[in-house]
Amino acid sequence: MAQDIVTRFAPSPTGFLHIGGARTALFNWLFAKHFGGKMLLRIEDTDRARSTDEAVDALIDGLRWLGLDWDGDPISQFSRVGRHGEVVEQMIENGTAYRCYCSPEEVDAMREKARAEGRPPRYDGTWRDRDPSEAPKDIAPVIRLKAPQSGETVVEDLVQGRVVIPNKDLDDFVIMRSDGTPTYMLAVVVDDHDMGITHIIRGVDHLTNAARQTLIFQALDWAVPAMAHIPLIHGPDGAKLSKRHGATGAEAYRAMGYLPQAMRNYLARLGWSHGDEEIMSLDDMIKWFGLDAVGQSAARFDFKKLENLNGHYMRATPDQELLEHWKTYLQHAEDGASVLHWLASSNNESVALAALPGLKERAKTLVELTSSASYLWRQRPLDLDEKALKILSDEAKTILKDLHGVLMEAGDWSAEPLETSVKAYAERKELKLGKVAQPLRAALTGRGTSPGIYDVLVALGREESLARIQDQAV
């Protein structure tokens, strides 16, 4: 593409970044990055009742968590209301828009009449060609587009293909309300033009807006950006993804312990594909992304696939980087403050890093990792779960007493020599390794399952390990 690509992500601030919006942002970001262009961020905050600073902050927080940056400062649509008004005045002057003094009741009556006659419920153009001198003095008018009444409006959509809408179905829709505020249709067109947007990539639920917005672009004699309407995301049951499917906002997935790189990879594969590739680095996604490989049908969100993909990224992420993601998760987790406090104390971050290789092998989410890691910060004497209580029989306690003596003699407190010592003890006593390892696990973690037992010994260190074994030994 010869032109400089400029895309935009233009969410309404609803209090969180919807997962469908996150996928739209990602597609815009990948497309811009692929062509060395820019992605701009516009907050469509003209609905003042819903648009709070907290809602805007939540959107930006979600984008930053996903690692999706944008060029320049975020643009507030509300801050541009003056510019929108200027454009509407320009349209009235050039005859492509007009003032309509019909009351809402009159418009409703027109639509009811059309329905009764089997026609689409449209405004009938009452004020389209009337002389302004007939205008009533006590009614604030709306401004309507003077839309073409014949012919067709064509949207050459880069995903959905050629979409043709008869102009008779579009009517003279409102572009400015009677209170002087612009409608969504008008504001979006003016902002996209002024921001130099070359490609509008958004959900297919906006396809019905595309023809009307095209008419406004044409009325202003402005170039119409290329448009691409991407498929919606459905839940596992095939219905549009909604609150009843569980998490719908990016912040909910962060709280469920997913990694941003896993979310990016998973969202990229919802509606777009590159051969059979399932796992893609960010560089791969940027290199391969193209609208030609975006499908037309809705994509189904599969939580199991996301979990498995997240497990892959947990294992593949370097320990120090994973620790930072873990801390971010803990900042938003219900019981995360106490764990963060533990991490900040003494040498505990090093302890956590030493434990991470074993922890991440078994965990598919940061929630699971936190649960598995809880042995690190539990206070003695440990509370024992049901499985651990069952393991710690009298025979097991005798084994622990022996093991305490064996491990006291360990000169090198690292995994390999500790494993050698425990295995040598089991052979000497003619015990299966499980008979020795299970009581050791229960004593060290208070649980019947845990990361590798030698990793646990190393992470806890000599003094704490021996003390926990002593607590449960006979």
Automatic annotation (TrEMBL):
It is found in: Cytoplasm. Residues 337-471 form the Aminoacyl-tRNA synthetase class I anticodon-binding domain. It catalyses: tRNA(Glu) + L-glutamate + ATP = L-glutamyl-tRNA(Glu) + AMP + diphosphate. One of its GO terms (molecular function) is glutamate-tRNA ligase activity. Monomer. Catalyzes the attachment of glutamate to tRNA(Glu) in a two-step reaction: glutamate is first activated by ATP to form Glu-AMP and then transferred to the acceptor end of tRNA(Glu). This is Glutamate--tRNA ligase. It comes from Roseibium porphyridii. The lineage of its organism: Bacteria, Pseudomonadati, Pseudomonadota, Alphaproteobacteria, Hyphomicrobiales. The gene is gltX.
